[in-house]
Amino acid sequence: MAQFLAVAAKTQVSVLEKELSSEKFKVDKISSLGVYFSGNWQECLRAHLTLRNTTRILLPVLEFTSYKEDELYNNILKHDFTKYITVKQPFMVESSAIDCSFKDSMYLSLKVKDAIADQFRSKFGSRPNVSKTEAELRVVVKGFKNNYLVAVDTTGGILSERGYRKDQGPAPLREGLAASLIDMTGWTSDRPFVDPMCGSGTLPIEAALKANKKSMMLRKQFAFQSWKQWISQDWSESYRQVARREIQPSSVNIFGFDHNPRMVAVSNLNSEAAGTQTSITFKQQSVADFSESPWSSSKPGVLVVNPPYGERLGDVERLQKTYKELGSLFKNHFRGWDCWVLSGNAELTKSLSLKSTQQIDIFNGPIKCKFLHYPMY
Ligand SMILES: C[S@@+](CC[C@H](N)C(=O)[O-])C[C@H]1O[C@@H](n2cnc3c(N)ncnc32)[C@H](O)[C@@H]1O
Q1: 198 and 339 inside one domain
Q2: How many domains in the chain?
Q3: Ligand 1 atom 26 nearest Cα
Q4: Among the atoms of ligand 1, which is closest to the Cα of residue 263?
Q5: Structural domain contains residue 288
Q6: Residue to probe by mutation, ligand 1, list 160, 175, 182, 197, most atoms within 8 Å of CB
Q7: What is the pLDDT of residues 134-188, one digit of tens each?
Q8: Residue 60 falls inside a structural domain
Q9: How far is the CA of 282 from the centre of ligand 1 (A)?
């Protein structure tokens, strides 16, 4: 039994915790870095294949306080890093330090790398190379006020990048963030889902993956599977079990609209790559000329939209009109629905002329945003 840390941005930690619990993982505690859960290595693989709200899964191996270089060096040596890889497999160290006596995280990485290299040298007479691109062991060091957490990265990539994005518009949402936004709304697949400004289709595709319990990770290999102790392990049953969950619900009502025909083509291309094309209808349509509702369910649904924020000069005036049209769209065509807007521009949001009942702080990349709930009752 090991304890893992599923990593998420601070604002996504609570949806990740709910996801872990609903997927029946044994949740131990939450922290600002993510959610700790325990299980065996099959559970670690299952986490990689099923979780949509985590960026990667770490195995924490050391926690200590250090003020000086030699203290840090000696603490690193307390864990045996030689059990993961051979001297032929490259490794790397990735560090961050806030309010620590090591001000420079590059220097911190260098010191940790030296300690790990010395550990290999004293045991085998040689050491593995360091490579950022080909590392099979990534050691992650997080320092805060001279307290350090050292972990090994079991993933070796980014789980929130699903691999279906074949093309994109100018400001696509990260796939993992789109999944978290959908979970925050509480949407379930028995209700219709609409994104009226879908761009490259991320929100409808993530909704369809959730509804179909479909994993984009089934063809992936993760870092820990190349480690010495696991290299000969047969993982195929775990992959099969997750693949078996992929039952396409026939009644799912998911729609994406965009006024730009190129974005509709891009959404269709990405949806095909994700294998969600039978679950989503993409259509060219502007928020200003929305006609009848194409969904068949009588149940009111969930609308999630990520409108343009107007970063370029001159955009704002034009976009005020678009936000006004968006507000009218909610009122005229989505009565009874839960409408949610990811807004990166508070001034523009006022043009919706609606009052939100819930405001959640979210970072969309470097942009500080609010995720706003407008129940259209
Ligand atoms: C910020 S992007 C959405 C990005 C999307 N969430 C993604 O992940 O790719 C905003 C989208 O709104 C579309 N848009 C702008 N004005 C529109 C309008 N009046 N009606 C419909 N779509 C519009 C743009 O073409 C653009 O694709």
Answers
A1: yes
A2: 2
A3: 199
A4: 27
A5: yes
A6: 197
A7: 999 999 999 999 999 999 999 999 999 999 999 998 889 999 999 999 999 999 9
A8: yes
A9: 13
Q: How many angstroms separate the alpha carbon of residue 309 from the centre of ligand 1?
A: 10
Specify whether 32 is located in the same domain as 136.
yes
137 and 188 both lie in a single domain = no
Kindly give the interhelix angle for 175-185 and 202-211, rounded to the nearest 10 degrees.
60
Its domain, for residue 49, covers: 2-153
State whether 135 and 75 are in the same domain.
yes
Residue 356 Cα to ligand 1 midpoint, Å, equals 21
What does the alpha-carbon distance between residue 308 and residue 316 come to, in Å, rounded to a whole number?
10
Q: What is the pLDDT of residues 184-204, one digit of tens each?
A: 999 999 999 999 999 999 999
Let me know whether 55 and 179 are in one domain.
Answer: no
Which atom, in ligand 1's list, is nearest to the CA of 169? 9
Q: Which helix H or strand E contains 117, and what residues bound it?
A: helix 105-124
Helix (H, G, I), strand (E, B) or coil at 264: helix
- Residue 219 is assigned to a structural domain of this protein: no
Mark the ranges of the chain whose per-residue pLDDT is less than 70.
247-250, 292, 296-297, 312-314
142/276 same-domain check: no
Q: What is the pTM of this model?
A: 0.94
Q: Mutation test of ligand 1: which of 168, 255, 259 has the most ligand atoms closer than 8 Å to its C-beta?
A: 259
Say whether both 7 and 118 belong to one domain: yes
- Nearest-angstrom CA–CA distance, 86 and 129: 10
Residue 2 burial by CB count (10 A; 0-12/13-18/19+): exposed, middle or buried? Answer: middle
> Which residue's CA lies nearest to atom 18 of ligand 1?
286
- Ligand 1-lining residues (CB < 6 angstroms): 169, 171-173, 197-200, 202-203, 258-260, 263, 286-288, 306-308, 322
User: What are 183's two structure tokens?
Assistant: 């979970």
Residue identifier of the C-alpha nearest atom 3 of ligand 1: 199
Residue 148 located in a structural domain: yes
User: Looking at the structure, do residues 144 and 196 belong to the same domain, yes or no?
Assistant: no
Nearest CA to ligand 1 atom 27: 199
Rounded to a whole number of angstroms, the distance between the first and last alpha carbons of the chain is: 48
Nearest Cα residue to 208 out of 256, 160, 171, 166: 256
